[in-house]
Every structure is written in C-alpha cells, then in structure tokens.
Design goal:
The complex is a heterotetramer, with two copies of chain A (331 residues) and two copies of chain B (327 residues). Chain A has 331 residues and is of the alpha/beta class. Chain A contains eleven helices and seven strands. Chain A has a single domain, classed as Thiamin diphosphate (ThDP)-binding fold, Pyr/PP domains (Rossmann fold), CATH 3.40.50.970. In chain A, the strands form two sheets. In chain A, strands 1-2-3-7-6 form a five-stranded parallel sheet, with helices on both faces. A two-stranded antiparallel ribbon of chain A has the order 4-5. In chain A, helix 5 packs parallel to helix 6. Chain B is an alpha/beta fold. In chain B, 37% of the residues lie in helices and 18% in strands. In chain B, helix 1 runs parallel beside helix 6 and helix 7 crosses helix 11. Chain B is globular and about 55 Å long. Classes of the chains: A alpha/beta (331), B alpha/beta (327). Chains in contact: A-B, A-C, A-D, B-C, B-D, C-D. At the C-D interface, helix 3 and helix 10 of C face loops of D. Bound molecules: thiamine diphosphate (2 copies) and magnesium ion (2 copies). The site of one magnesium ion (MG) has 6 residues of chain D, from strand 4.
C-alpha cells in the first residue's frame, strides 16, 4: 500500500469517525426533542474534525479532558457510543450511571477523564493530570480541549503557566468556534490572538484550519510527539465553526444573517468526502459509511430508550468513603 | 394588579430601578441577548450596551469589577447565570465585597446586587443545581434574599438594588415561569431597606409552623393544601430573606403552633435550616411542644437522571408526613 | 511519648506518609522554604523538588492541578497557606474535587488533602483570619477535619492523607506552637478511615456538655478548669472532625448532663454549631433539660486592632457564664 | 526657572517623598519590633521610586489600588502619614479606624481605594473602578499596582482582558521586585516576559528601570495621558528590587549570597541624591531633607504610640446597613 493509499485509508477512517460523531449528536438531538434526553445538549456539529484529528490518534493510556461540548472528543478517544447514549438518557449502563449526563460524560477506561460543566475548569485539572504522569515518569500525554470562551477565564493563565513552569506533558487545544454561547468571542477578547496569549505564558503554539481533519491530525501528532519527548506543553489553536446553536434548543438567531449558511460549505465531513472522491473512493462507499454511522447511532438510541432506569439507591453511592450518608431504609 | 411571571417581575424591577437611577448598571454574560433565562430581554435596546454590559466568561472579573465600580460610585447588578458559577468568584464576593466597607473603616460602601439563579432545574446535574444560600448567610457584610413569588421577586429585587450593601440575590431557576399578581405601584418606601427582612405568612394555621423559602415555599403550600383537606391547618412562612431573617415571625408562629418544621432544597447538613432550628431551640425552647424537624436534602450531590435527582427533593408528601409525625 | 508541637506533629505526619507512599505529593507556595509557618521545613531536602512542589501564586491552579493529579493516580497534599486564600479556588474544590467521583459515576476517586490554616492569629484582620469550616461540611463529597491538639494533628493528618476522599484539613494558625504528647507508634490501622470521625472527650463531667473543635477546645478546657475549682464539672468534647462528626458522642454526653453548649470561633450565624444544636434538638429533645446554647462569634468581620479583634473571640469567662446560665 | 532647574526641583521633591516613605516604613518596622504594630508589615524599601514616580503625579480624583506592600503608594497619593501610622498601630484616628492595619491601608479622600491582602485581587477591582469612571464619562484614571507574583493569578488575565475589551481608563503597574515571598518569581513564571503577557491581552506596554524615579514618572505621565485621552488601558512594567525581607521579620536568607548587598548600590533614593549632587544641590540640603522625613515619621510614631485605642463598640460599626448586628449591651 503506497502513501496515497495509506492516507486515503486513514482519511476514510477519520471521516467514518466524524460521521459517527455527527450521527450520535443528531440522535441525541432527536432524543432531546422527544423528551428522552432531559438535560442540555451542546452539539459539536461542524467541529468534528477537531475531535477526530486530535483524539483518535491518541494512545489509550493518554489522558483527555473535555468540555460541555464533549461527545465528539469522547467518542474519538474510544468510548462506547451505547454507554454514552445511555448516559445522555440517564439510564442504567450509562458511563456515569446516569449521574452525569451529557455535560459530565467521561470514560476513565479509555483515559477520558471527563467533560466539565464549568467553562475552563478542565485546564488546571489537565495540568495536574499531566503533573501526575510526570511525577510517575510515564510517557503518556494529557490533552485538554476547551473553547474560545474559556480563554478569558483565569484558569487559562493559571493552567498554562503551571504547565510551562513545570514543563508538563500536556497539549492544550482551543477549539475556536467563534462563539461563547450567544456572544461573539472577538467582542470580549482583548488582543484577539490566542496563540500570542499562550506564547506569552511560555507555551509554544500552532494554529490550524480546524475543519481540515488531516491537517488537525498531522499537527496534533507533531505537537504530541514533542510533548511526549519531554519538551513541555504545547498550545493548539483549531479554527472551526459551530454550525448549530449553543444548545439543541438554541436557534442561534444572534448570528449575522447567512453566516452559518456560508459555513456549511466548510463542513469538515463534506470536505473529507470531497477529498475521498478525488482519491477515487466511490459514492457508494461514502454512502455506506454514512449509513453505517446512522445505523449504529440509531441502535444506540433504541438501546438507550429501552434501557432501565438506574436503581434509585445508587443516588447514595459514590459520594465518599468517609462520612457517606446511607440510603433511606426501604429504598 | 397584573399577573406577571417571576422572570418578568424581576425584569420589571430592574427596569424600574435603572430608569430611576443612572448609576444602576448590569453586567454578566450574554446579557445583550436577554440573559440565559430571558430575564434581561429587551434591556439592551432600552438602556444601551454601556449599561447592559455583555461580559466575557470571567465570573471573577464580573464580580471583581462590580466591587470596584461600586466603590467608585456605581450600583452594579451582577448576573452570575447559575449560582454554581459564582464559585469562580468567591474571593471577590466574600473577601472583597463583603469586607471592604469594614476593613476600610467605613470609607466606602459596596452597593451591589449579585443575582445567582439557584436550585434544581430538571436534569442539570451536580454543577448546575446547587443551593448554597447558607454559605452567604454565614458571611458578615452580606445580605441574602431568596424570593419565592413573583411579588417577592419584584419587591425584593427593587429593594436589593437600593440597599447599600452587597446583596446575594438568589432567584430559583425552577420558578421563572411561575405567575403571580404583582403590585408594582407600591410607594417608593416599600422598596427601601426598612421593609427588607420581613417574612410573609402565606397561610395561617395552628397545627404546625412550616418555614420555607424560594421554590420550597410552593411545596410547603401544596402540603398545606393536602393537610387542610384533612382538617389540619398548618402555618406556612415564606421567609423571603435569609439575612436578615425574620426571627420574630417564626417565634410568633411557634408560640401558636408549638411545632416547627424547616424545609429547604439545600443539603440539610450545614444548611440554613440548622440556624433556624438552633435559634428557636435556644431562645424559644419552651414554645416547642415537640422536637423541631428539618426536612431537607440528604448530603449527596445532585444527579442527572430524574429518579436519582428526585432523591434530593423534599416532596409535599414528605412534609405532610412530617407534620403528622409531630402531631 | 515525645512532646511535639502541633506544627511538628503535622510535619511528622506528612513525612511518615510520604515515606510510605511514593504517590503522596505536596504542592503550595513557598514549600521549598518550609512553608509560611515552617510546617514543611526540611521536606524539600528529603523528598526533592518534584515531591515538594513550590508553586506560583495560583491557588486555583494548585487546587485544580491537585484534582487532576488525584484522578490520575497521585495523592496530593495541597497547601493553601491561609484558609482565606482557598476562596480563590472554590470552584476547584467544590464543583470539581467534591463532585468528580459522583458525577462520573464512581469511575474515579479524588484522594486529596487540602490544608487550610484557619482562625485568628493576632492582628491578621479580615482577610487572614476566617474560620469557614461550616461551608465545607455543607458540601457532599467533602470530609472536614479541625485538629485541636498535637496528637490530633498527627493522627488526623495521617488519616486524611490515606483517605480516598477530598479532605479539607483545617489546622489553626494560633496552635502551631502548642505542645502535646504524640504517640507516633500506633498501629497503621489507627490512621485508616475507620478511626476517623471519633470525638475525644477531653474531660469528663456531668454538669454540662461543651462541644468544641480546633483552638476553641483549649478555651473550653480553660473554662472547665475554672469551673472545676468551683466544683462544677463540665464535659468537654473535642469534636476533631466536622464531617463526619461524632453525633453519638454528643448524644451520650447530653444524656448525662442534660445541657449543651456548642462553642466555636467562627461566626455563629450559619456556623456548624447550628448543625449540632439542631441535630440534638431534633433527635434528642428529651435529653435537653435546658435550652441549648451556642457561644460563637458575632456576625461581624474580624478587625486588626486587638481590642476590636477580641470582640469576635469567645472567652473562657463567657463559657463559664454560659454554663452557669444553664444550671 | 529653566528646565534643568525645574527637573532638579521636581527630583528633589520626589526624593523627599521617597525619604518620607522610607522613614515611614523604618518607623513602622521599629514599631513592629517594639510590639506596637502587631500585624504583618511588608516594607517597600528599595522600591520607593515606583510609588513616587507613579502615584505622586496623579490627580487627587484619580483612583489608586494597591497591594499588601502599599504604604509607599498610599503616602505618594497624598494620604496623611499620621493617620496611616495610627492605622498600623491599630489606634483611633487610623484611616480605617484600626480595622484594617497595614495590609488594608486606604484613604478614599485622596482616591486611594485600598491595599489588599489577597494577591492580585485589586486587578479586577481596579478594572471595575475604571469602568465606573467610564460609565459616568469622567476623565479620571485608575492606577492599579501589583507585584510580579500576581501575574500568575487568574485576575491578571481576567482584569487586563476586561479593561482591554471595554477600553477602560486604567494603568496597570507591575512592581517587579523579582520575588514573590520566598520564591524567585522567574522560577514559576512561564514565558517570563510580563509585557508580552499584557500585550497578548490587548494592553500596550512599557518596561522601565523602576529605580529611576524620573524615568518612572515620565513613563507614568505619558501612559497616563494616553489613558486619559480615552485610548484604553496600559501596562507598566517597573523593574525594581525588594531590599529587605518579605515582611519585617523575614531575614530573606533564601536570596543568593550578596545579591541584596549588590542591589543597595541601586537604591533609588541614593540614585536621586547622586543626581541632585551633580545638579548642584548641597549635601546640607540633602541631609536636611532626610532629617525632615525622619522627624515627620518619628512624630507620627510618637503620635500613634500615644493615641487611644478605638472604642470597642466600633467593632460593630460599618458591617452593613441591612441586617447589622447590634453591639452587646453595656459595651
Ligand atoms: C464558569 C462558567 N461560566 C459560564 C458558563 C455558561 N456557559 C456554558 S458554555 C458557555 C460558552 C462557552 O464558550 P466556549 O468556551 O467558546 O465553548 P463553546 O460553547 O463555543 O464550545 C457558557 C458561557 C459555564 N458553564 N461556566
Ligand atoms: C491569593 C493569595 N495567595 C497568597 C498570598 C500570600 N502572599 C502574600 S504576599 C505574597 C507574595 C506576593 O508577591 P508579589 O506579588 O511579587 O508582591 P511583593 O510581595 O513582591 O511585593 C504572597 C504569596 C496572598 N496574600 N494572596
Ligand atoms: Mg466557542
Ligand atoms: Mg514581588
């Protein structure tokens, strides 16, 4: 197999992953519309290339921390879609036993240490996870993904500074979709050049087109290798766009007319498909991949919809070892 | 009197005070788009982007800037979005806002209204559901309000904006759409500090006193209705504010009923119910014909799945059972 | 048994656990120079700069990094320097450390010891003197310790480091130089979770139960001595931990004395004394022959000038008067 | 009077101010040694040029926020030394009525809105004070002074970003004395270039020799004028050195041997004296200025030592309007 074939194979694989992420979130949105998912859902539609390019190539024992918009990252790190869907439905067999939901999705078995409901909070946590790796002398890396809104919270400075000061193995990935909720980030972000912020904290940076999955992957691998070699943290600025609203119920009317429409042309999945078509992959193969993703996620939906609720007693489990309160009698 | 939603009552309160006083100023994330619960809808259009300040995601800066602005003559209304996020700005609130007037020997007041929407809102999970009113009641320098009705939200919010102290103003997320009659026409002095800190007796009764605040008032009222159908008439006190809190109203009531239940959505351990029960036990021991009772959340985080989440809810049925237990 | 200072007992506890377990790791400002109170003196020399990590002034990063490290297999000891500065890291402690295990459905524990030196230390004023133990007791997921003696500081700190939960470990700044006998030789299981949460009866008596923790235990002992000289024998309970707290020990004691005083240095309103009094009033009403009593700080910030600062101290004389009032 | 005379006069005035600051702190240290000042004292000996150059030229209605090491800033803004000394002694007539002490020194009458016991906390507060000025349409500026240790806390990012985003009239001054308590700041500060940090947040910067009082003043005036003209915040990096320990009881043994000794040659007061000598100011005049400062501060010491304690009742004042607890009866 020559290089071109290899790249085509890899690109097709990454597109399959992006399709799975998209199908997962579309299923989750349907479930939210059907009142089967009750908590907020933050879809990453349009941003799948960051998840696929950054997280899929990681080792299983590498660590990952994510945000409220973390389904894609979690799937790409290797978590089971059914367990994730069950979590969104709040059912037994969900990754977090139904206690976390979408915003706290996590799968420690594949090194995914959690989405976070507090913007920016994962940055210091990631620095610490990397610190533990370094103290142990391990060669894993930690990846921390956050949005362009998070760069205005203190942890951005504190966590990057910490990682730089202690030369920790952590890749900070800013998934810059231009918006923080209903606010255009540029309106409230001084300076504007996020790489400059990281550089000033002693963290070398790179900025890429975050909708080009192969460029994302190539950059992530390169930065990851440098980090694994012990040269300290890196900052990865991935420019992308949130094609849907902030949550599944947000019509995103605050965006300038036509802005989103124009951006659909840049859909990373379509871009991957176009490249694959030029590389000779047939329409039928591309459709088959899309259908497979749909089928998988519809099955996950059906599975979750039919899954039992978690035992009510479990509400009292996993609070703490010392001083845990017992479940009421008869529960 | 018009029926307004709790949301709209709060919105009207802000509008009224902003029209009266140029130094009143709102700051928080996404306010230009009406705020995350629509409680600022249309305000940017009326007051402009200077006075309705859409902030970066920087709770510490929002709170800290408000403290500085308050010391420099403005009257900020801070929007924290979810009370949980205010935990990113605790130094600014507790070490700075609450203490500045005192530490500086009275050289400056810090007139500040910090809106912290709190409480459970179906399947919001552990980081978007907390009720931490007890924390703020514990901090000298802070005033704490927890409105239960649309009228509360109108009156208490107007008052809070006028009060020269930092007020932690905790609306309940579950109540935004609750409707109630609101008297907006009350005389100005109604919104002054004098009226602040008075409980409302929502229903009179002699069988038992139930003290509640925020959304839990409605649960208490539901229990009261059920009990009334059985001829048991409880007195329901909507405390409205936790600091100051209306000790006299509670004492008056237990003098009549001899029984005290305090119920809140927050965790029981270290919750403000302990303060009320302890105060009554210390000062009005003889009035208590039965042991006092707290009906509150167990000391567990709040889950996402509805069945688990419900484990931290105190239901009307539980209140009914509590009242019967004290008979 | 050697007499050690409270400071040295804590230092020895850390050394013992660090020798036993490579994953124990200290992080905080100025630790390389022994920490601001000398409680880490010499540790960098023994354990190196990796395991004794001198941090930037970044309480949020210190706490947040510790949470991440704990989830990734380390057992961090976090030094917050003054409990007041921990208010810069509340999200990290309360929204993250306390909830991670639960939110993630038990996928990870967060073994973390957060040292927060608290309390008054002559003329440290409002931002360096607070006692906020009640806050942490209110938060599901957290364990809370408040050692009063050198032995407490040895035993409880070793236990806290071993416990798999986040422990808020509140040493009292005024006690660093207090000496006491310390049994370091106790068997390993002494430091396990099983022993945690047990109060110590510092002095037996039948006239009144005084519950205290941290530095206030010594004030209670002073009062007890004065009273004993007059033939009044009070029982002094050193609670040692606030979550879990030894409800049974307090209940046993009031069954004997019929009288309860809870005293603490923290502000009374919303303080943990309310929890203890309320719990006893709810569950052991019949044992109380007199109304319970809290002797605690007024709800005012802590001043710099000694005379003003003293206004928030609860003195032995006040405890004596309280006991006599309940006779 | 020609330019040279003018500058000489101004330099002499600034040296007088620096001498007053030095004498004030030396008196405070004596008082601490004598157990008359009970709280911690953080002397700014060696750093007086920053206080004198930045704060003295401010308008009275300009606002100032400072740190735990704030005596110099406060004096330079025009506060009364006797009231300040009484505050350190915890006596009646102290600026804060004895409630604050050294770490919370403030004089709102001269626009000095407070030292702060929490490192970095004044940064967001200063941004807010400037925001209030801007909302009112005033032409004052706000000056916020903090140390090199504060740049690693979140408020540095949050406050500078805020000021840049809203184009606020605030001058951020980093008084970089190389140390944060016992820790050399460079050891824990990623990147190391503090100006780069500020620039990346959209705040233009300038770095100067902070022991050259006239250079400090010239820069502060220039930046202040730009800010007053409505062009948004500026960051001023003043390089200096803390000649004594972190507190009055810190022997500062953690510094490399000889480091401090070498730095005494750079003492800003001595440097000013040398310049004045070259400009023809006599030894006698210089000594007279020093003596005047000593005399003033000894008088402040004596006044404070003889001043009454604040009324104990006042402990209950100024907590809050609503829900204030009354003083106990009989107090
Ligand atoms: C500390 C904090 N403040 C506010 C919020 C509410 N919030 C949730 S997501 C969000 C926007 C985040 O923007 P960004 O970081 O760009 O991520 P994106 O949503 O674009 O993926 C906000 C403000 C929060 N969760 N945490
Ligand atoms: C948030 C916080 N953390 C820690 C401290 C303890 N502390 C007081 S001063 C200081 C060093 C500050 O260094 P820097 O900012 O450089 O100011 P300098 O003392 O050098 O003037 C520290 C760590 C504090 N006051 N506040
Ligand atoms: Mg974004
Ligand atoms: Mg410094």
């Amino acid at each position: 197999m020559n290089q071109a074939n290899l790249d085509t194979a890899r690109l097709r694989e990454r597109r399959r992953l992006m399709l799975r992420i998209r199908a997962f979130e579309e299923a989750a949105i349907r479930a939210a519309d059907n009142k089967l998912v009750l908590g907020a859902i933050h879809p990453s539609v349009g941003q799948e290339a960051v998840a696929a390019g950054v997280c899929a190539p990681l080792r299983k024992d590498d660590l990952l921390l994510s945000t409220h918009r973390g389904h894609g990252h979690t799937l790409a790190k290797g978590a089971d879609a059914r367990a994730m869907m069950r979590e969104l439905f709040g059912r037994e067999g969900g990754n977090c036993g139904g206690k976390g939901g979408s915003m706290h999705i996590a799968d420690f078995d594949v090194g995914m240490l959690g989405a976070n409901g507090v913007v920016g909070a994962n940055i210091n946590i990631a620095a610490g996870a990397a610190h533990a790796i370094k103290l142990r002398g391990g060669d894993q890396i930690t990846v921390c993904i956050f949005g362009d809104g998070a760069v205005n919270r203190g942890p951005f400075l504190e966590g990057l500074n910490w990682a730089a000061a202690f030369k920790l193995p952590v890749l900070f990935v800013c998934e810059d979709n231009g918006y923080a909720s209903t606010t255009k980030s540029s309106a409230v972000t001084g300076g504007g050049d996020l790489c400059a912020r990281a550089e000033a904290l002693g963290v070398p940076t790179e900025s890429v087109d975050g909708n080009d999955v192969m460029a994302v992957e190539e950059t992530a691998l390169r930065l990851g290798a440098a980090i694994r070699a012990g040269t300290g943290p890196r900052f990865f600025h991935a420019r992308t766009y949130r094609l849907l609203g902030h949550t599944s119920v947000d019509p995103a009317k605050y965006r300038p007319d036509g802005e989103a429409d124009g951006k659909w042309a840049d859909d990373p999945i379509q871009r991957a498909a176009d490249l694959l078509t030029s590389a000779g992959v047939s329409e039928a193969e591309l459709t088959a991949d899309a259908n497979a993703a749909e089928t998988e996620m519809q099955a996950a939906y059906d599975d979750a919809a039919g899954a039992p609720w978690p035992s009510v007693r479990s509400a009292y489990d996993d609070v703490q070892d010392v001083g845990a309160v017992p479940a009421p009698q008869g529960l | 009197m018009p029926a307004l939603t709790y949301r709209e009552a709060g919105r009207q309160a802000v509008i009224a005070e902003m029209r009266l006083d140029q130094s009143v100023w709102c700051l928080g994330e996404d306010l230009g788009r009406g705020g995350v619960f629509g409680q600022y809808a249309g305000l940017e259009a009326e007051f402009g982007t200077d006075r309705i300040c859409s902030a970066p995601i920087s709770e510490a800066a929002i709170m800290g800037a408000a403290v500085g602005a308050a010391m420099a003559g403005a009257r900020p209304i801070v929007e924290m979005r979810f009370a949980d996020f205010a935990l990113c700005a605790v130094d600014e609130l507790v070490n700075q806002a609450a203490k500045a007037r005192y530490m500086f020997g009275g050289q400056s007041k810090v007139p500040l209204t910090v809106r912290e929407p709190m409480g459970m809102w179906r399947s919001s999970a552990a980081q978007h559901s907390q009720s931490l009113e007890a924390w703020y009641a514990h901090i000298p320098g802070l005033v704490v309000a927890a409105p239960a009705t649309a009228q509360d939200n109108y009156t208490l919010l107007r008052s809070s904006i006028r009060i020269d102290d930092p007020v932690v103003y905790m609306e309940h997320k579950h109540l935004w759409d609750f409707e109630g009659e609101v008297d907006e026409g009350a005389a100005d002095f109604e919104y002054g500090p004098e009226q602040f800190g008075k409980a409302h007796v929502m229903q009179e009764g002699d069988a038992c006193t139930i003290v509640a605040w925020s959304a839990q008032v409605h649960v208490a009222m539901e229990a009261a209705k059920t009990l009334a159908a059985d001829g048991v008439h409880v007195e329901v006190i909507n405390l409205r504010t936790l600091w100051p809190w209306d000790e006299a109203a509670v004492a008056r009531s237990i003098a009549k009923t001899g029984r005290l239940i305090v119920t809140h959505e927050a965790v029981g351990v270290g919750g403000f119910g302990g303060e009320i029960v302890a105060t009554m036990a210390e000062k009005h021991f003889d009035k208590l014909q039965r042991p006092p009772l707290r009906l509150t959340a167990p000391r567990i985080p709040i889950s996402y799945a509805p069945g688990l989440e419900n484990q931290v809810r105190v239901t009307a049925d539980q209140l009914v059972a509590g009242v019967m237990q004290l008979r």
